[in-house]
Write a structure and sequence with these properties.
CATH topology of the largest domain: Four Helix Bundle (Hemerythrin (Met), subunit A)
CATH architecture of the largest domain: Up-down Bundle
CATH class of the largest domain: Mainly Alpha
Number of strands: 7
Largest sheet: 5 strands, antiparallel
Structural class: alpha+beta
Strand content: 5-15%
Order of helices and strands: HHHHHHHHHHHHHEEHEEHEEEH
CATH superfamily of the largest domain: nmb1532 protein domain like
Strand order of the largest sheet: 4-3-7-6-5
Shape: globular
Number of domains: 3
Low-confidence stretches: 68-82
Distance between the termini: 64 Å
């Protein structure tokens, strides 16, 4: 967006903060922005936050921005503004997706390519959605126990979309935002992914002879269909435009850590060959790592860290991902996240909590935060620990994830 429009938005915020009436600022906004795409206005607002303008100040533009949209109430106008941002994003990206859709389709035809797997998963999910639609019509005609049971069973398959969404959230959204400064998909789609996943979980064991739950299921699968369309026609073509072959190889490698979403993982020979060559080069060193308590070769240290019965992640004093140990994980870690800002790896609704914890570690207000939870039916202890040097200086944060199921069984005896 043009620099002058950024400056105009800053001026509107300043005028509102100085007590000028909302109507006056709105009038100027409509004069200057009525022909500007809503998506571009959103990008300008994001730029303001990057420049240090507090989120609470930028939020004041919501009422101003909503002046361009219909609705009887403030809430309706803002909701319609959000819808227009999404529609506008599609229009703005259409000029690249027209030429890149074919490229994305070609990549999706490469057996084993990440887009091939994502597309096959979408096809399988579409089949399950169509089966669900049929069952919904059946239960409307015959609200029997058997038809209700069939819907409950198929929702188990629909809920596997959580795996598909987790891969997007770990492997695509953060990379687009951190490497290419494309934040629209992560800010808009990521939240919708979470809402769909949470809704399917909430209604999973409901009585679908109840019109409320049946309606919620219909709405959820409609949103799933919309997301599939957005992925195939907006998200994947944008990825095709920007991601390099080497980046796709790494995404492919990281994809191996995820369970299957209705479709089995298929090897990609091209990536396997490239990754094998890269690993051979990186493992060539025999240098000794000397520590106060002894010494390791790199291979020994790697093996020890991978043998520990705990998932470890470490970020440095600049909030950059530096390390995680390898192996199966409850909390997936993408290799591509190494060297990336830790905040880009979290959905918007979690980011503020992460910033708060790290901020407290840096200030010395806290040294550790413990979180007990259940993950995939397993009791888990997650600890965030401030790492300090011999002088007490903050040098990073370590996250430790421990499965507590064995301990629970032991103490229940």
């Amino acid at each position: 967006m043009e620099e002058k429009n950024i400056e105009l938005l800053k001026d509107y915020i300043k005028r509102l903060s100085n007590g000028e009436s909302l109507e006056s600022v709105r009038a100027d906004f409509v004069d200057n922005f009525s022909d500007v795409e809503a998506f571009n206005i959103m990008q300008a607002e994001q730029q303001l936050m990057k420049e240090g303008v507090p989120f609470t100040e930028v939020q004041k533009l919501c009422d101003v921005h909503s002046a361009l949209f219909h609705g009887k109430t403030r809430e309706e106008k803002i909701a319609n503004a959000e819808k227009e941002v999404e529609a506008s994003a599609a229009r703005v990206t259409s000029n690249i997706t027209i030429e890149k859709r074919e490229a994305a389709k070609k990549q999706a035809e490469i057996v084993g390519h990440p887009l091939h797997l994502f597309t096959k998963e979408n096809e399988a999910l579409t089949e399950e959605i169509n089966k669900t639609k049929s069952l919904i019509e059946d239960i409307k005609i015959d609200p029997s126990d058997d038809n209700n049971r069939k819907i409950i069973e198929i929702i188990d398959n629909l809920r596997k979309v959580a795996i598909h969404y987790a891969k997007k959230g770990d492997l695509l959204y953060p990379h687009m935002k951190a490497k290419y400064d494309i934040s629209g998909p992560s800010d808009v789609m990521w939240s919708v992914d979470d809402e769909i996943r949470d809704e399917l979980k909430f209604i999973a064991d409901s009585d679908f002879r109840n019109a409320e739950y049946l309606g919620r299921l219909e709405h959820a699968i409609t949103r799933m269909e919309e997301m599939i369309y957005k992925e195939q026609n907006i998200l994947f073509p944008i990825c095709t435009k920007f991601f390099t072959d080497e980046e796709w190889y790494k995404i492919y490698q990281d994809s191996k850590d995820y369970a299957s979403c209705l479709v089995d993982f298929i090897k990609w020979p091209e990536a396997e060959a490239a990754l094998s060559k890269e690993n051979a080069t990186s493992n060539a060193t025999d240098d000794i790592i000397n520590l106060p308590g002894g010494h390791f070769t790199p291979a020994q240290l790697r093996a020890v860290l991978n043998t520990l019965p705990v998932e470890i992640s470490f970020i440095d004093e600049n909030d950059v991902n530096c390390f995680f140990n390898e192996g199966p994980k409850l909390f997936k870690r993408a290799g591509m996240a190494i060297g990336r800002d830790v905040y880009s790896c979290h959905p918007p609704k979690i980011e503020m909590m992460v910033r708060s914890i790290i901020g407290d570690f840096k200030s010395g207000a806290r040294d550790k935060v413990s979180v007990w939870m259940e993950k995939e039916g397993i009791p888990v202890l997650v600890e965030y620990i401030a790492v300090r040097d011999d002088n007490g200086q903050y040098i990073g944060t370590m996250e430790c994830v421990q499965k507590m199921d064995e301990a629970k069984k032991h103490f229940e005896k």
